[in-house]
Predict the structure.
Amino acid sequence: MSREQYQIPTGSQQTFTGGAGNTAATTSREFDTGIMYYTCGDCAARVPLEKGAGIRCQKCGARVLYKERTKRMVQFEAR
Amino acid sequence: MPRKQPTEEELERRKIVGVNAETVTDVTSTDFPGNWPGEDYAWDIKKIIRDTKIEFHQNEPAEASFSLIGVDASIANAFRRIMIADIPTIAIEKVFIDNNTSVIQDEVLAHRLGLIPFTGGREGLDNFMRWLPKPKDNEPIESTYFDYNTISLELRVTCTHNPNAAEDEKDPRKLYNHAHVYAKDIVFMPVGRQVKYFAGENAIRPVNPDILIAKLRPGQQIDLSMIMHKGVGSDHAKFSPVATASYRLLPTITILRPILGRDAENFAKCFPQGVIRLEKVTKAEAAREGSGYEGHASELKAVVVNPMLDTVSRECLRHDEFKEKVKLGRERDHFIFNIESTGQWESDAIFLASIAHLKEKARKLEQQVVDMVR
């Protein structure tokens, strides 16, 4: 899978239709509504964040959020 | 010109490596052609068969100890090296991590998994499992994966709170479910004919089920699959079938002049227990002229009973009262092997396999020499 084909693994995947057919206008609109999930540094809750939203946990108000681990498989050599 | 053949005593003396307080003497063997004038040391298979001995001291699945007597150091060392680096075992080679939210990093976790010793049915490991062939240049690696060279394993653990735990519980293993991830949590996923070869008690399993792999806290998860291949220790130490494979030379302790009374007790303390025994000087010994025991009847004397237990600490050489009374040494052709198996092989089977391996290597060399001459 090339980097352009990669879909950000969030709950709102239906808004992404893959890179090739999209015009610049629709892509930017989708980014406006695209939701990313983060993990709260304080209460470990899953925090959905829209673009431009304040970086803040909705549950406890903590301002430290962590990126989630990739959903893709990672391969290692056991050496 | 014919020369006098050496006496038994002389031959024994030539086999001894001298161990002094600060130095070691006569380390090299001298039993090769042309070294001693008039003596024939030509290679003779009958002589080798007659002189070579193997005596087992201990033979358990996990550890074996035996003496290999009458061979050159090069042969003994070849066996040792083959056992460490050339006897194949299976080990985890690739780890596919779907999720790992534990505190232990992916790379470290994969490395730890690789070092876990596994075992399984001997028939399957010896006769069914084969080497993984190298894929052709333009093909993906997994194009050579088959049931006879790849074993699949899975490890999928999620840590959760234990609702039944006591309120003041402090032990994380009771407070949470799956707080500790052990080697026994690894699940064998048989494929194809592996179902037949590794069924029931022959299943691929960790030798030590209680090896701790990682510690988790509620919400953390390890979710991965692994594949194992056959490999040799020269590629990576995880493939080595032995934990230790080592040899030492048999120590010799020669008491030149009698050590008596208080000195004898101190002398015994210079060695590990069981090496020196204190015995009473008999009347017959005391009566014998020139034995050194005259007038010492029923006193204690030091007697060497089991030099094999000695660690050759040379402690007795540090004390003046034993000067000129004792000679330490080692027998150059008596190798005391100690083999500890990691569990995939029986410890004595590793040694037998190393003999077969050396034979095979010699046979290949012979063929190549024949081809070279042709």
